[in-house]
Amino acid sequence: MSRSRTIDVPGNQGAAPEFLVTPETLDAISPSGDRGGVIIGSNPQKEAEAASILRPHPTRMVTVGGLYLARQLALRAMATGAWVIVATGRPAAWKTLERAAGQTPDGKPVPLVQIRRLAPFDLPRSSEDTPLLVIHDGGAVPQELFPPRAPWQTTMYVLPYLHPQVSSGTAANTADLVLLQRLPLNQAQLAQRIWSLQNPQVQQLTQLQDDQVIALGNMTWTMIGLVTNKKEQEILGPIRRGD
User: Fold this and answer.
1) Which superkingdom, per the lineage (predicted)?
2) Hey, which of 56, 89, 116, 206 has its CA 20 to 30 A from 156?
């Protein structure tokens, strides 16, 4: 991928500045894109596709599909120096992030990553120096426990599939960026109703390969091929569509 392109996110005033993390953390996880843009993969022109998901605006994003995609994005956000807080009902599935971040000298997980129960709690203050990615892994119909209210806070909702109730919820309808993996026809038709898609787009959603996603955003419909490096493979395993 010799060239790169940043996906347009509404309200984007430039990619986030660079953040510093320990060499050990950088060794364990994937590097980010240029100046804080998180690389998602490559487009059909073999250009790197990045999105400025950590930015000076409250930001909401959604992933639809397996855990692999969500955990890879979390690793790459960590590489920019972002704090990652995961609220989940399946904490064991996210322990790989703690292991990737490493430990403090006294053997405790570094505070770069926190895995919490799926219940409301106070979030740390986000800032340009300490951007915050809150991952809400609460099933197909998530409650708005952590709506993004502050600059440099991004809330990512991890949906295993599209549920009819999502069409009336806030997470999907108001997301700044949606990343869709392959959907069966009935869910692709639901996506059509939620985001006013055209019939060819619906068909494309049903034909994606395991390593392909659609990035849907402000005037954006881009097919992206997921790319992984050796370290990510060691942490996450092979690219896959399921959990």
Assistant:
1) Bacteria
2) 206
